[in-house]
Design goal:
about 300 residues; alpha/beta; 3-stranded parallel β-sheet; 8 helices; 9 strands; about 30% helix; globular
Length: about 300
């Protein structure tokens, strides 16, 4: 499959908005899966290992987890001058827009050459509204509160496989809770991804909860480091939101902790189960493969 992907573009400012977790998850997965068959018009510079040192400190989340992971050889940036010919000749099997709530560059141009079901919208916005004018396309919605159907699908954040701690690693737990308390900025003290991850590795639990939306990269970062999420409110999460997560187990963890019934054995079982679920179902590549399958089925 050959894909034209619209992610970050120069109209999206300030620098903190360079990162869009949902779009970047999908881009990382598609690039890892399809390589140079994924084209962009604008260089997704923040995703590659040659990202200039110090740049990511200006990004949302300091660029942890998703930024600077892809090898530069995977780049395939086309010139804007070539875009018209590529669209006219239908070089691509589909076109993906991953930040329509921030930029609609080239959307009208793409619509002139591609059918509605050949255009894909990735919507990672915290809000659950879906703009009516885009419902005609293949639509993937992060905070989905309505019934999915053939053209509307739930989607959740994912994590690069290389960010999971080795499966055979069992770090010694030195404390009950990770340092970060969501929403309390004074606890956001980590200046490197390694420090941030190490804090979860040595913690039994990482506190997390709904903020702007239900889904959050922190949920995955906790579990990928063989820590267990303590998630107040998880039982209120809408049915079609966070569908890739093992919400049942996360809920059981919460209630065990609240009722003071968690044992070392139960904790170990939950920790391993959640880690394995992430490794199997919630990597960027696993997500990208699901998206490709849905798109191909949509063509037929």
């Amino acid at each position: 499959m050959k894909i034209l992907f619209f992610g970050w573009d120069p109209s999206i400012t300030p620098a903190s908005r360079t990162v869009d977790y949902m779009g970047d998850c999908v881009y990382h997965g598609l690039k890892s899966l399809l390589g140079k068959d994924v084209h962009t018009v604008y260089d997704q510079f923040h995703m590659y290992t040659d990202l200039r040192k110090g740049t990511s400190k200006w990004f949302h989340g300091k660029g942890f987890t998703l930024c600077g992971n892809l090898e530069p050889v995977l780049r395939n940036v086309i010139e804007e001058a070539d875009l018209k010919e590529n669209l006219k000749n239908k070089v691509y099997d589909c076109v993906i827009f991953s930040r329509m709530y921030r930029s609609t560059r080239h959307y009208e141009e793409v619509c002139q050459h591609y059918k509605d079901n050949e255009i894909v919208i990735i919507d990672g916005h915290d809000l659950d509204e879906i703009p009516e004018q885009y419902r005609k396309h293949m639509y993937f919605k992060r905070e989905l509160v309505e019934e999915p159907h053939a053209m509307l699908h739930p989607i959740s954040f994912s994590i690069p496989e290389e960010k999971l701690v080795p499966a055979d690693l069992t770090a010694k737990k030195e404390k009950e809770l990770g340092d970060i308390i969501p929403g309390k900025l004074e606890t956001y003290t980590f200046n490197s991804e390694k420090e941030y991850y190490n804090d979860y590795k040595k913690s039994l639990y990482g506190i997390t909860h709904k903020k702007g939306g239900w889904d959050c990269m922190r949920h995955l970062e906790i579990m990928a480091n063989k820590c267990v999420p303590f998630f107040p409110g998880i039982d209120d999460c809408p049915l079609h939101t966070m569908t890739d997560y093992d919400k049942e187990t996360i809920s059981q963890v919460y209630h065990h902790v609240q009722n003071n019934t968690m044992t070392e054995k139960i904790y170990g079982t939950y920790c391993q189960s959640l880690y394995e679920h992430v490794a199997q179902h919630q990597t960027t590549v696993a997500q990208a493969q699901r998206i490709v399958n849905i798109i191909e089925n949509g063509f037929s």
